[in-house]
Amino acid sequence: MTGNDKKRATLDFGDDLETPPVPPVDPNAVKAATRAAGFRDTPRAPELFPSSTVRPTRRTRRKTGRTEQFATRLRADTIETIYAYADRHEITLAETIERAIAALLQAKS
Asked: Which of 19, 34, 64, 84 could pair with 39 in a Cys bridge, judged by C-beta atoms 3.0 to 4.6 Å apart?
């Protein structure tokens, strides 16, 4: 017997269980009920680019050559030191780590 020869199981609940179709719901009645219950309308965000205008092209970011991910757990004081250095010199965390490694290698030689 192949997979095509198998019969599917069917559920037969009989004809006496037919339910009448659900009547359509009036959206205005739903809004009135939700307002009466204390819910309010969610404000819509303003449309930044109306459909009649053309969206500006996205600005491309400069390529850094950094494609590898490096995740590790550090002590809180170490993280704060790294962030403080990066903020003080206005560089990324990746650049901070690269500078630290360069300094370690230079000190070693």
From this structure: 34
